[in-house]
Design goal:
The protein folds into two domains: 86 residues, Orthogonal Bundle (Arc Repressor Mutant, subunit A), CATH 1.10.10.10; 139 residues, 2-Layer Sandwich (Endonuclease, Chain A). The chain is elongated, with a radius of gyration of 25 Å. Helix content is 40%, strand content 17%. The chain has 263 residues and is an alpha+beta fold. The strands form two sheets. An eight-stranded mixed sheet has the order 3-9-8-7-4-5-6-10, with helices on both faces.
Length: 263
């Protein structure tokens, strides 16, 4: 997000929380120039004339910050006062998230702290930065599959046929595939054939996941890169063979009247 737009949304949020009304005009007055204007030095009288001439006749005004924010549905106007929408709050929260730091050489690693409210987001940031690939997770649930569809580049998931206490895990996964319209393909293997958790991008490093996504933020852990090229290649080949032998989980939709598990 553009820095000025983030500052504008933060300005709306601050005044909204303080209970101070903010008009569209007042928002634009701040957002267009959020810092004092610097002094301008012109090189010559002719340069000054040219600047004024171009400004008056040949510069078409662009979209105002408020117009863009309204068009994007990041803000709304209620009885003349600007308010953040739910979408605007989500965009602002995303813009404020801590950025993963990458060393000059080598892949990223993430240490999971259960007390870190952003731990889950850090995991998906890492998966997104690694590019498309295969997630191997024997215990993934429909909640994590739903998040994968919107927050990462994972396009293949290899999981086990293990059921949960409700015995509906695979059914819920199939419903999530059918309802989300995602391009993710899910395949299953008999439970004894899968144990470890990995993310294997189509190229580059592979990553070892200390826990399944359904519990990775519940205990201290780590997502560690497998930096050895030979090891990563062997892992990629081994799971490519398992993928070929696995059973495709067909997307499905819920019968009329059946409530979504995500509701």
């Amino acid at each position: 997000m553009d820095g000025k737009l983030q500052l504008a949304l933060t300005y709306v949020e601050a005044l909204e929380q303080a209970g101070v009304p903010l008009s569209v005009e007042e928002l634009d007055g701040f957002a267009v120039q959020p810092t004092p204007l610097p002094a301008r030095r012109r090189s010559s009288y002719m340069a000054a004339m040219q600047e004024e001439y171009l400004h008056d006749y040949f510069i078409e005004p662009g979209e105002t910050p408020s117009a863009f924010l309204l068009r994007s549905k990041w803000i709304t106007v209620v009885t003349g006062t600007v308010r953040l929408t739910g979408l605007g709050r989500a965009v602002l929260a995303h813009a404020r998230r801590p950025q993963l730091e990458k060393a000059a050489a080598g892949p990223l690693s993430v240490t999971i702290d259960p007390d870190d409210p952003l731990a889950y987001i850090r995991i998906f940031d890492l998966l997104g930065s690694a590019g498309s690939g295969m997630l191997i997770d024997p215990y993934i649930r429909f909640e994590e599959l739903h998040d994968l569809a919107g927050l990462s580049h994972v396009n293949r998931v290899l999981t086990s046929d293990r059921t949960d206490s409700s015995r509906l895990r695979l059914k819920h996964l199939a419903h999530t595939l059918g309802e989300s319209g995602t391009g993710i393909e899910v395949r299953t293997l008999p439970h004894p054939k899968l144990h470890d958790r990995f993310y294997i991008p189509d190229t580059g490093y592979a990553f070892f996941l200390g826990s399944s996504l359904n519990s990775i933020t519940a205990r201290p852990g780590v997502i560690a890169p497998i930096e050895d090229e030979a090891a990563a290649s062997a892992l990629r080949n081994a799971y490519a063979a398992l993928w070929q032998s696995a059973t495709v989980l067909q997307p499905s939709t819920r019968p009329e009247g059946e409530q979504s598990a995500l509701a």
